[in-house]
């Protein structure tokens, strides 16, 4: 199956905590980073997820925020450090490609944000993704 979601990172489930309706699934990405996905408990069952399951963590580019340093006092738990490899500006939005350990991410942010943050190739950044914005696909 082909998907329009640009960000697809392979990893392995390290834990699943299920509630009545929702579950948190912790995944160790192949690059060594840890991320948490908040998905329905039904999806956990449908995908047969458990510790050791091989998955792909999927994130839309529009759901990846970018910071130029550490961020304190923020509820977003998924914080992946990387380096900007390319910035492509469009009319209002820009595509920011970020090299991370084991792969890459793309963030779709406004041109104003690119300017305000001073993003250029080589900039050190942290990609921020809410756990509710990470989907999982079984491998």
Compact description:
The chain has 139 residues and is mainly beta.
Walk me through the structure.
The protein has 139 residues and is mainly β. The protein is 10% helix and 53% strand. Strand 7 and strand 8 form a beta hairpin.
Main beta sheet, described? 5 strands, antiparallel
What share of residues is helical? Answer: 10-25%
Read across the widest sheet, the strand sequence of neighbours is 3-2-1-4-10
Oligomeric description of these chains: single chain
Q: State the total count of DSSP E strands.
A: 10
The average pLDDT is: 96
Total helices: the number is 2
Q: State the end-to-end distance.
A: 11 Å
What is the radius of gyration computed over CA atoms, rounded to a whole number of angstroms?
15 Å
Percent range for β-strand residues = over 45%
What series of H and E elements makes up the topology?
A: EEEHEEEEEHEE
Class by SSE composition: mainly beta
Poorly predicted ranges: none
**Per the principal axes of the C-alpha atoms, what is the gross shape?**
elongated
């Amino acid at each position: 199956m082909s998907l329009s979601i640009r960000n697809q990172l392979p990893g392995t489930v390290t834990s699943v905590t299920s509630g009545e309706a929702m579950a948190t699934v912790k995944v160790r990405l192949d690059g060594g980073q840890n991320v948490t996905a908040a998905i329905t408990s039904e999806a956990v069952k449908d995908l047969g997820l458990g510790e050791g399951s091989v998955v792909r963590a999927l994130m839309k580019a529009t759901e990846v925020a970018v910071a130029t340093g550490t961020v304190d006092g923020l509820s977003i738990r998924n914080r992946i450090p990387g380096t900007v490899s390319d910035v492509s500006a469009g009319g209002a939005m820009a595509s920011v490609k970020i090299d991370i350990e084991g792969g890459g991410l793309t963030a779709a942010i406004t041109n104003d944000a690119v300017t305000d943050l001073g993003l250029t190739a080589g900039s050190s950044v942290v990609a921020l993704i809410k756990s509710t914005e990470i989907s999982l696909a079984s491998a």
